[in-house]
Amino acid sequence: MFKKTVFGRLLYLFPVIFTVHNMEEVVSDLPGWSERAGLFHPIVGTFEFIFAVIVITILGYLFTYLAVKRGKGSIPAYLLFSLILVVDINVFFPHLLATIATKSLAPGTVSAVLLNLPICTYLLIRGVKEEYIQLKRLLIILIPFLIASIVTIAGLFFIGKTMEGLI
């Protein structure tokens, strides 16, 4: 049964801000910016980037739904909070670091600072306080999740580029 707790409903803030952030990156032409971003982002084409953004955004909604449905301590809860933590870290690297280093606003920085940082941090703190997740367990999962995320994004870029070549 779907668990309709206050915190469960609050978790749905995450996919909303995740969508806004990802759309900001699309609208601010992250693919164009990637051509001059150096180490901060691999060069990525528009189609492959938008394809990856759509899939990753859908995963954010799926992780949230499953985490709320399965509840405290579930595998989906740890997947969701791993993604929330990665999005929180992403505010600093690459967004703020790239903005400072390139002396230009990196795509996604506005929503990263104004939405992702406060809301993701709040959800993480509240998730630990409400024992939705255990911080120690989350931190253990973080490195494998980061690696899986990087591999997934690279794979989605590859699939998107391949699909574009077929169109």
UniProtKB/TrEMBL annotation:
Ranges that cross the membrane: 46-68, 75-93, 105-125, 137-159
Keywords, alphabetical: Membrane, Transmembrane, Transmembrane helix
Keyword Transmembrane helix: yes
Name of the protein in its database record: HXXEE domain-containing protein
